[in-house]
Amino acid sequence: MRMDYDIVIIGAGPAGMAAALEAKRSGAESVLVIDRDIETGGILNQCIHSGFGLHRFSEELTGPEYAERYSKALRESGAHVMLDTMVMGLECRGREKLVRAINPVSGIVEINAKAVILSMGCRERTRGAIQIPGDRPSGILTAGTAQRYVNIEGYRVGKKVVVLGSGDIGLIMARRLTLEGAKVLACVEIMPYSSGLNRNIVQCLDDFSIPLLLSHTVTRIVGRRRLEGVVIAEVDSERMPVPGTERFLECDTLLLSVGLIPENEVTTGAGIKVDPKTRGPYVDGTMETSMEGVFACGNAVHVNDLVDHVSMEGEKAGRSAAAYARSGADVSKRLIGAFPGNGVSYVVPQHLSAGIASGTTEFSFRADRVFKNAYLIVRNELGAVLRKVRRPRITPGEMERISVRNDIIGSAMDITISIEEV
Length: 422
What we know:
This protein is an alpha/beta fold. It has helices at residues 14-25, 63-77, 127-130, 143-153, 168-179, 198-205, 265-269, 307-327, 406-409, and strands spanning 2-10, 31-34, 50-52, 61-62, 80-82, 86-93, 96-103, 107-118, 122-124, 140-142, 160-164, 183-188, 212-213, 216-222, 229-234, 247-250, 253-256, 260-262, 294-296, 335-340, 344-348, 351-353, 360-367, 371-380, 385-394, 400-405, 414-421.
């Protein structure tokens, strides 16, 4: 089965839906959104807690409420949606892109597109990624899996719980399981700071008297058939366990909240260049990847804190893809690099096209450690300051954003974003 569309969007989460709506508003005639799930909304459908939409809708929504607003708009937009469909690959054939997918009804489907948007979201790191020694009993699962079991499937995952890592999903599930009657013994974080939002530390741990053990980690799993407990220990500055600090925590469940990674199988399979730091594709100021006519947005590029920012990136990708589908590639190919400097882990977008339009470019980035009373500084290759903003506190758990005027950037060869304490 073969089909033709102006724009094909892979992923119907918040980024993909926002991209589809903006592409239609920007004049794209035919837009197709593909998702492997049986409904639109992505991970939002299992995030029943509030805190979504404060920036986008100026009100506090739950995840399903946020998803439903976009899903309703998507149904009314005229965009086509293909659910329960797995994308197997993406090829570039000159100006045309070929997306191969499969579903139970149509079998293998080949879709020709003028432009493609990657919005597959992200996935959780598992136990195998952090290599905890011990047996493989039941009771060890990622925080997102536990969230689905509890909020969607209606299962109780455990009675005595330890959370490893302090990502936002782990913090939220510590509160959720407490409300369901479980005893959450501790949230154990290997770094000397939390990787989650400060509001979640307060609302999910402090408000429920759940201890956050910084500079600690799980060193051993105890149990054969079902988890019986974990051994935790303090770690030193090199993140190695300190002998003599080990202690045993009796528990039947260990939740892993040890980081998220952009879904990049389609990205790498297409030969698109991936940033080794973010694990998502390199993008320019229009969210175009290294493959002409293929754009990316949201958590498929880098893991965001807020769904509102994911939606905004989706809209930018939707506008850019619609413009590309109408007129083709930008003639300007000289690139201005955007690089992380002191205290910065990564920068998105990683480069801009020379001769960019008027207005501003917003850069997103994360600190690589905690700073107090510091400046965000954007410099050109000669060291001249293009923008300088003061922040009272900067942490790796909260994404920073800074805007720079395009007319200033356009005269530079490369720029660097750094953090410097006052």
